[in-house]
Amino acid sequence: MDATAIILAAGEGTRMKSNHCKVSHKILGKPMVQWIVDATIKAGCSRVVVVIGSHADEMRALIDGAYANSATKVECVEQTERLGTGHAVKVALEPAASRKAPSSCSTATCRSSPPTPSPSSHRPSPPASSPAPS
Q: Which residues form the catalytic set?
């Protein structure tokens, strides 16, 4: 599959009261971000872009250490200014602009060109059998 996953991992983790990046905390012995990267690789993504911000050096070391020998390209891009989720995706796409724009992005389905909504995509389906109006 020629898909690129974008993982937003720039959060500071302030509410976790920690000196470490939020996604570097371990769950079942593995940093949270690794669970997500592993899932995108298992799903068949050919490239994974991890957007980092807070604790960038720690995150680069974690990602590089875990995926240095991976057949799937896993890279970090830094969001130096935290200007929201849309900005994080923009930062993730910028390095790819000089190569090939990703055809799709990880967990939320976003494409290099927005999909054309179908006429019924935002309306609920009518019930299978509805009573006649009175």
A: 15
